[in-house]
Amino acid sequence: MPKPITVERGLEISVILTLIGAALFLEGLSDAFGWWWDLGGWGFWTGAVGIVLLLIGVIWLVMVVMRRQRFQELIVEKSKALFVRNLDELEYTAWRLPSRFDTEVVEKKKDMGVK
User: Are 97 and 86 in contact (CB under 8 A)?
Assistant: First the structure.
């Protein structure tokens, strides 16, 4: 069963949300201070939606990057005993990342001789 698009393309979606949120927030500020253009009273709502999207995008981005870093820490393990001990966490982390990380876990298990 394929993984959801939010997992497969989580990094790209989070970056897009962050950029859209920042742009909407700046448009809302522009309307509030009269810098570039007037949105006709929609500046407050544009800024509010921008802040929400910006927060969601940044938090999502940080979580994806932290998962990838943790995966890299776990996958480079040289000791078979430590690898087996951390195998559950490694598989769970790979499950929350795109499919290519699952493939890396299978290859690492094969190299370590773990079923």
Answer: no
Q: Tell me: the pLDDT tens digits for 4-19?
A: 898 899 999 999 999 9
How far, in Å, are 26, 89, 107 from residue 93 at the CA level? 35, 6, 15
Distances (CA, A) of 68 to 2, 34, 83: 19, 42, 17
CA distances from 14 to 1, 2, 40, 67, 96 (A): 23, 20, 29, 14, 15
- Break the chain into its structural domains and give their ranges: 5-112
Residues 6+ apart with CB under 8 A from 85: none
Q: What is the pTM of this model?
A: 0.83
Phi-psi region of 35 (alpha: psi -120 to 50; beta: other; left: phi over 0): alpha
